Amino acid sequence: MLKTRIRREVANAERIAARLAAIEASVVALANEDLLDLADIFAGDKETPLWTIAAAEMQKRNIRL
Are 54 and 38 a contacting pair, CB within 8 Å? Predict the structure, then answer.
């Protein structure tokens, strides 16, 4: 029973990691204008994971809102 739960949790963690990598790859693939639009949508009072990813990519490209 414990091994089954551990395998299930590992599989779930792998799916989550793959999904996050796909989201990050999608943000990286955006054109500058689209990246700025995404950052503008998620810019708010508190930081969100999508804002953090977009902000990091904007910093790499040396662009600002």
Answer: yes
* DSSP codes, 26-50: HHHTS-HHHHHHHHHHH-SSS--HH
The CA-to-CA distance between both ends of the chain, in Å, stands at 51
Which secondary-structure segment (H or E) carries 1?
none
State how far the Cα of 20 lies from the Cα of 36, in Å rounded to an integer.
20
What values do phi and psi take at 44, rounded to 5?
-160, -160
Contact 63, 36 (CB under 8 A): yes
Digit-coded pLDDT (tens) for 1-13: 788 999 999 999 9
